[in-house]
Specification:
Helix 1 (about 5-20) crosses helix 3 and helix 2 (about 55-80) runs antiparallel to helix 3 (about 90-120). The chain has three helices and no strands. The relative contact order is 0.13. About 60% of the residues lie in helices and about 0% in strands. GO terms for molecular function: cytoskeletal motor activity; structural molecule activity. It is found in: Bacterial flagellum basal body.
């Protein structure tokens, strides 16, 4: 099963929107003049970051927290369903489990793409 990076990023953005987090600016939306390669918040050496822009690390951290929160919420719903608490519907548990599974798979795919990009850069001849 193969996902394109754009579809994975759009899924992460939709999860962030669902979880009430601010969606960071898209890489393609960043002006080319003030960022290297279009990455928001990553400027030239010696250049200060612009306030209000999320760095790559902050964006990645926010996405990871969103995935972690989804998995924790799923765990809580599963526990509530197993204990027979009222309002713990099987459909809600299954939907939450699928959402957290998709979020985790998207995160793993993004990680794999980042590792591959890093390896490609490190293997470039000087």
């Amino acid at each position: 099963m193969s996902y394109s990076v754009d579809s994975v990023l759009s899924q992460i953005r939709s999860y962030q929107t669902q979880m009430g987090q601010a969606v960071p600016p898209r890489v393609a939306d960043a002006p080319r003049g003030d960022a290297i390669g279009g990455l928001a918040g990553v400027g030239a050496p010696g250049q200060a970051q612009q306030p209000g822009r999320a760095s790559f690390g902050e964006t990645l951290r926010g996405a990871m927290e969103g995935v972690n929160n989804a998995q924790q919420r799923t765990g809580e719903l599963v526990r509530a369903f197993e204990l027979g608490e009222p309002g713990a519907d099987l459909a809600k548990v299954m939907v939450a489990a699928q959402q957290s599974q998709v979020a985790f798979r998207a995160t793993v795919e993004v990680r794999n793409r980042l590792v591959q990009a890093y390896q490609d850069v490190m293997n470039m001849p000087l």
